[in-house]
Design brief:
263 residues; three-stranded antiparallel β-sheet; 8 helices; 15% strand; two-stranded antiparallel sheet; Ribosomal Protein L22, Chain A
Amino acid sequence: MSSTSLVRGGEVPTSGKTNERPGTRAVARHIRMSASKARAVLDLIRNKDVQSADEILRFSERDAAIVIRKVLASAVANAEHNDDQIPEDLYVAACFADEGKTMRRMRPRARGRASRIRKRSCHITVIVARMPERELERRRSIEAARPGSRAARRAGQQQAEGRRRQLRRARQEALAPEHDHDHDGHDHDGHDHDHDDVAIEVDQVTADDIEALAETEEILRDEPLTDAEVIEDETAGTQQAETLADHEGDAEVTMAEDDRETK
């Protein structure tokens, strides 16, 4: 029995009436099989989370697993739509099979005798409930620590997005033009200009984020760009193309002047 699929602290007390047990239930009545055959399969999924229970029933070779899997899916659907529960937070709190009606038939035997055939039936009940808070926290911490999990990917994307915003802010500060001073309207003696310190701080921030930029580009290579980022990339490409065209024009003018001087 796996320690990750078994819910800790989730045992339901068996004292009292069966109909008074807590949780969301689903019942399949008058199933044409004996209760003992159904109980053998129900024992496999008791106190398991619904995902593990569904996997066990899916790959079970017993015919009772087909019916019990449908009952389990019905109980989960009832909890989701009627009680506003999250399916991932549910587990099998209780499951049992009660004996139903038994049909009696006769089989002819030798010497004019007859033997009795009992066609048994059962009522299958599956109750699902929400896991305890401590168990949910334990599972979430394990899922977040597991590499490649959804929670780990989400945390990595958030961290990469934070680095990306920080780097974009540092670039904007580095490329921002210096603020204009009204040198005639205020006193320079009482005003301390620390332009050199500001430039040094901006350079330091940009230098520290070069490695973070490389890692961020690798992580966010497959992520779709937002509309603002698309407009920013198009603007940067247009400016780069205009700068390249200006350099080419200056080079052609310089070459023409050199040829004119040579002649």
